[in-house]
Amino acid sequence: MKSEVVEVIEQFTEVPGDPAQALDLASLELVQLAEALEERFAFVVDARDLNEKNFGSVAQIEAYVARKRRG
Amino acid sequence: MLIALRDSDAPALVKPDGAQLTYRQLGAEVEKEARALRSQGAAPGRIVALGMTDPQQFLVSALAIWESGAVLLPLDVRAGAGPAEALIRRARPVLLRDAEGFRQLPDPRELDEGTALLLFTSGSSGPPKGVRLSRDGLRANIEAILRYLPAARTAIVLPLTYSYALVGQALTTLHAGGTALLLGELKYPPEQLAAMVRLGARGLSSVPPSLRLIARAVVEGISAPPLDYLASAGASLDAATVALVRTAFPSARLWNQYGLTEASPRVAAISDADPAFARGAAGRPLQGIELRIDGEEILVRGPSVMLGYLDDPDATSRALLPGGWLRTGDVGHLEEGCLFVHGRGDGVVKCAGERVGLDEVAAAMRECPGVADACVVALPDEALGARLIAFVEAPASVLAELRKLLRRKLLPAKRPAEIIPVESLPRLPSGKIDRQALRRRAEEA
Fold it and tell me: Which of B54, B106, B141, B362 has the greatest number of C-beta atoms within 10 Å?
């Protein structure tokens, strides 16, 4: 079952089979992705959280979204 | 040559790590590259496809292509081999220049010698159209932009395959003898900010979602570069973004701009010193540009209007009216010479700066086995400009396959946010799909 986070990510870039694999996101796709996640999951991304540690892979984005939703 | 490069030791291009090419070095690199291109067949009227991903190498090759008199066709190689090959088949360049070297291509075509740039952009229907831009038109646009935008140390964060970044930022900066900070490979706003601070950026142009996140990072406490101005284009600049940018960069001038690839691209601009800016104006016409409203549609006339679409006389005659007026497809009004844009008038929407033809997306979906018909509607979206909702006459079981196909065929911005399978699409008595009904369903969903 595909996660909701993956559904958002795949609008902007190819989602690799391995969730730990690095995502190929260009800068414009990254900002679009951040805003789409905010809208879908009703939280606000701290712009300083936009880095490789939080947005480098599907697994990292899923973990980040989960943390933000727990507040 | 499209622009004049000065012979000086001032920095022309700077990479994020600070490595730089002076104007003299850039000139020498361009000369060397132009010799190589000529020996491979680049000549006036011939097209050279450029697939460099490194922004500095991209600009060296682009300037060299113009030095040889040839036409530049920028390829977005990140979109994958499929879309790039489709453009090459349609454009028939003499050469492909990429990081691997030069590849001569069969059956090259010849364009009018005044042509300098071929950019593919989405229209309201069918595949992307090749916009033919002239050397004189590009130069006129560069000079018109430089009348209002200073070009000292300009940070470029957008891909150079966009007319906005290539013409409106890189070429204007180089033509004015300024320094282009090539930050396109930095994807995260905090690292873009850190590079701008390190390199002393004085100007930044981007699209609203990018400006928004950069401004937010500053508000959150990340150091701000000493910007004299920020400029926005590619989508409407909303009041919330303006307020955020003002908070983050209180002493910088803010510009809103309007344009389209078919106009090389800049048409109008306005700064926040102008009272109409606060009322949401898109701009006042640039030097040499005339604006007129026909019905509700914005028409543009001036030296930077395109020569026409590649191999598409019908689309060209629909877009270019007698008297040299270009139909923009955007709806708006003029108030004492100042332009206000209301949005797209036809089936083209902007998703975060990317023009998306709704029928193009639907056509791609119809190619998937099991999909009998498809229709795409766009809902306004504060963050992205538009959100695409697709309705397909297909069983739900084909959706996974359909998504896979769209990833192969379409740029990310063109892929629908939601795909809703239906037994049959609502139709008007004429047999045409009832878009209004679908838009209502999308709004309810």
Answer: B141
